[in-house]
Amino acid sequence: MKQVIFIFCIGFLLADYGGGYAGSGFRYGSNAREFSLAGALVADKTPGFYAFSNPALFHFSKHNHVGISFQKMSLERSVHSFSFSRRLPPSAGVGLAFLSSGTDNIIGRDIMNNEIEPFSSREREGIISFGVAIGSKFALGINIKAFFTSIDTDYKGKGVSGDIGLIYKLNRRLHIGALIQNINASYNWKVLIGDDERSYEQKFPQNYSFGIAYSGIKRMNIFFQEDIMISPGDDVNYRIRIGSEYKLKNNVKLRAGLKQSWGAYPKGTKRDGINLKPTFGAGVPIKVWQKQSVQLDCALDPGSVGEGMSLLFSFSLQL
């Protein structure tokens, strides 16, 4: 436990992260529960959305699940996802998932700064996942991903990548998770300039995540995660995430989290405020027929730089 506290304190003192790199649209969060817990779910399962947290979590599948997320945000931004997970007895699971992230009605400008027609930007990924338990303590999972991106109609890119995830069950109440994300990932862009088509490669940062999920407190779960991002220029950045979930007697779950708000900025530049962003949310089971229910999750994004407040929703259904 002393080692965990030491890593926790060092993470807050040295925490940093990179932004503005390829694939940034996939790092917002695939569903409302993930966002409300600050994304600290590398060691914990969200039924219907295993692939986005850690593919090793598929070994927890006891049933088939469908997850759907609608996240319409301020400034014409949106993140939508769909996921299907299927149990493979005795201790494995497979899944298919899709995520789309983008911004619409972006004001266009020509080289003379004159306003022209608006345009859209979008990133999409399709994921095939597999996870299996190895003995009673370990689980291993992989994601195979295909990326597609576009800016207006003249800029299009695509690529492939993979993730490798691990889960270690220290005991019934404490799980440790690890994830290597965006292995050899890049966009291969095709840019149309008049009648001339040009190509170039834009690499993703390599992400490493380590975290714990602890359920030893009555009615409460606690999640901690440290992200390490290595940029294409070999800069190393860090980000801390913490989340907590409290279960009421009626099975409603209240959630809150904290994550690092901003990363590195030029030397001598000052930023006002605390370098932490709060997240909030709740989960409500809704009975639809007999013993069948739909899990409704919602989250509140208060915004980071005054872009406005956003309300996020996602649904999961056990089949």
Description:
Helix content is 7%, strand content 59%. The relative contact order is 0.19. The protein is globular. It is mostly beta strands and 319 residues long. The protein has a 14-stranded antiparallel beta barrel with strand order 1-2-3-4-5-6-7-10-11-12-13-14-15-16. The chain has helices at residues 2-14, 32-36, 50-53, and strands at 65-72, 77-88, 92-109, 115-134, 138-151, 155-169, 174-183, 186-193, 196-203, 206-217, 220-230, 236-247, 253-260, 276-289, 292-301, 310-318. The protein has one domain: Porin (Beta Barrel). It has three helices and 16 strands. Residues 1-16 have low confidence and may be disordered.
The CATH superfamily title: Outer membrane protein transport protein (OMPP1/FadL/TodX)
Q: What is the total tally of β strands? A: 16
* Subunit arrangement of the protein: single chain
Low-confidence stretches: 1-16
List the total number of helices. Answer: 3
What is the fold-level CATH name, i.e. the topology?
Porin
- Largest sheet report: 14 strands, antiparallel, barrel
Rg, nearest Å: 20 Å
First CA to last CA: what distance? 39 Å
Q: Tell me the CATH architecture.
A: Beta Barrel
Which secondary-structure class do the elements indicate? mainly beta
**Molecular shape:** globular
Query: Strand share of the residues?
Result: over 45%
For the largest sheet, list the strands in their spatial order: 1-2-3-4-5-6-7-10-11-12-13-14-15-16
Q: Percent range for helical residues? A: under 10%
CATH class: Mainly Beta
> How many separate domains?
1
The helix/strand series, from N terminus to C terminus, equals: HHHEEEEEEEEEEEEEEEE
- Average pLDDT over all residues: 85
